[in-house]
Amino acid sequence: MNAPESIARFAPDPQGLDFDALRRAGIATLQALCGDRWTDYNLHDPGVTILEQLCYAITELGYRSDFPAEDYLTDADGQIDYRHHALHPADEIFPSEVLTFEDYRKVLYDTIPELEDVWLTRDERPGSTGQPAHGLCRIAIKLNDALHDSADEASLAQIEAAACERVRQVFHAHRNLGEDLSDVSVVPVQPVYLSGDIQIHSERDPASIFADLFFQCARAVHSGFRIERYVKASEAGVTLDTLFAGPRTVHGYVASTGAQAQGAPVAVARLVGLVQAVDGVAHVQRLALCTADGTPVSGDSLTGASGTVLRLRFPSDTQSNFLRLHFASGKAGSGSHALTSASDHRREEKSRVVLEDARVALAKARFEFDTLRNTAQSLTTVVPAPTGQSRELREYFSIQHHFPAIYGINRFGVPPTAPLENRVSAHQLKAYLYLAEQLMANYLENLQSVGRLFSVDALYETYFSQRIDNEALPDIEAFYTDAPDGVRSQLARIVSRKDRAQDRRSRLLDVLLAMYGETYSQKSLRRFDDYQDVHGARWLIDNKLDFLRHIATLSRDRASAFDITAAGVRADGRPNVAGVYAKISILLGLPAEPPGAPLSDALTRWHLRLQGDRTATKESYEFAAARLIVLKSQGEPEVRPTGAQAQPGDTLPGRLLVHGVRLENYILRQHDDAVHVHFRTHDARLGGDAPGEVLLARFHGDDAVTYAGRYVEILREFLCTLNQASEGFYLVEHVLLRPRRSGATRDGTTAEADAQVHEAESFFNARVSVVFPAWTSRFSDPDFRQLAQETVCRNLPAHLLPEFHWMDYVSMRDFEHRYGLWRARLRERAATPDRLDAASASLRTLLMRRRRAHDLTLWV
């Protein structure tokens, strides 16, 4: 007889963590280890009782380890701080900034409601015949019907000028690195009208049918953009990677953008298909486009006159009979009854009534479309953020609570009348079990800390511990030989011996980076951590954390450029630099945010100026070191007013700035009761106790060694600060340095610069200049320069060729003055084009002069 089918009451754990499986494994291990001594494995055996209690506790650990991942990230308030865990929603991590002309069109159409269509084309090189200029483009726009219908000629000109300026602002806010806008123009339109004969059903109002078919045809003629709600597109099966491909559009999903080129033909067959799909249309007998006087526009594909685009106009009284609607016959053979079958007067009256009602219905359809287009779409229902349940995972409840009272280790303890031997045995068993219980308590503390491990916190430990108190384990505190804080410290030290924190933390961050397809490849950067007190992987961890904090913008804005219409901050609050700036900075161990002041100001704000090697003397080193100690003790200097002249200041030997960040360059020597601090300058011209050494300071007394050590510590710390504040780079796009006005009056310097530009035909052709300071400790290292140049080349867009300039302090001061003036003139370009050309030529002169004087390294 077949056994009846049934469902087991208790299913074994697939991981082997159920009680029975753990007990069997424990018994098997015991038999293998001590089977010749311990032969009784029955339930009454105390060893088996202990084993069962441990197995029971381990099932609890397994249970707490099997919650949904969201629960381990949920804080005490029941919320998940996704950004804190380097997690980003689909609409933030999937989209990119604009890359193609198609992307530009989406952003412009989504941002500017006055636009009906927009087209981008490559500009031509000056003096060439049809050859496109790399990086320069033109934009042609088509304004919507409402602006044309409601404005007179003067008002329309103002509206067009405002729309063109708005297009420029949006373009520059989203432009690609190495691209610029040469011109924006409004395309003139050629009005056309619908004509033909269409059969309709009698179930729907003819005016509604007329308005509907006109609106559909007008949308096809005016613009190819088709926008949908994100919710509707998602329900239709559009995947997330498709939904958020390209730039993020605020007002909906742009399903189609239509023709890529201005003046693309309009297919009559497409219009017929749109009309046939309108509810109430039975048959399209004839459909065409015509001019205001009724002249048909011939051809199967219709285009406007040269330089114009078609615009479908709603018929006025004179065009009321161009498009005629007929009721289809209700019975076979009865023929058709046209709406215009009455007398001429009645026919005109009926057409006028239909057009008036259709005009109202059309206004309603346009309002609904404009509402859809101009309403920001919520994505909470499209990609709902997962939620978790807050759990107190670290709470530990001792297994000793579950032992029979006869063992004397639960909360009842040993009876007062029990012999001393029993109390001692209970204490021994309690202490014996404590080792296993502390491990389990630590496990729960680690489980509670999973969210901290997978986060962007500056965390440098990966194993955690917790102190077990009397509430968790009865009377355990009597066994501790130290205060609670001391016990915690001892536990932390014990755990840290097994914690390879830097390696494990680094690998955990690699997991978070891998979620976004990123790897941190700059491990060789550890060779150049001159400014860290302790060499190790902590600096690398900090850089990875910085990378993760900016992961969304690093991936999205990797090809974007700075906004030439904004100052130091964009409209959305982000720093106004190229998108690749932050990534290159992090990979080079620099702050992701650009410095608020020029790099050379790091020294001038302290009234310091670099001294060359040829003029540096032993006395200048000693005086400069003493001066640095004084400046450090005085605190931060006052900020100079904008435009104030820098004071000459004290000299700072360049070798002291470069080599003073390394402790091995400081030597303490005992001279009787004095301690002398010597410094290795690596300059063979200077001699002291050893070649290249100079004396910096002398200390006397019993604490001379302490004072000397403190002196070196303060001096080195200040030099590290000066070095780090002086490090960064500038990215100059050559296309932005082009002359805006040909034939403008210029001085000799500008004319010379223009001549150099004409000699170097490739200067504006997809090139950028990368300017680094050459006077700091890391940036003067040839190996670091090689790493920096490779990092820039690997992360720049592939079509851009970088030219590297490593400038000394004086050259950088000159460059930063010209660069700052040029950036200011870029923001004023419309009002002062001549001043912009002068500033561009000045900066171009400097770069071209260095280009000729130095054998620049060009990377491919």
3D structure, described in words:
Residues 331-350 are annotated as: Disordered. By secondary structure, the protein is an alpha/beta fold. Among the domains are: 7-66, no CATH class; 95-186, GMP Synthetase, Chain A, domain 3, CATH 3.30.300; 189-224 and 259-374, no CATH class; 603-636 and 646-725, no CATH class; 729-853, no CATH class. The chain contains 27 helices and 20 strands. Strands 4, 8, 10, 11 and 12 form a 5-stranded mixed sheet that branches. It has a 3-stranded mixed sheet with strand order 1-2-3. β15 and β16 form a beta hairpin. α2 runs parallel beside α13, α16 packs parallel to α17 and α19 (579-587) packs antiparallel against α25. It is flat, with a radius of gyration of 39 Å. The model is unreliable at 330-342 and 744-748 (pLDDT under 50).
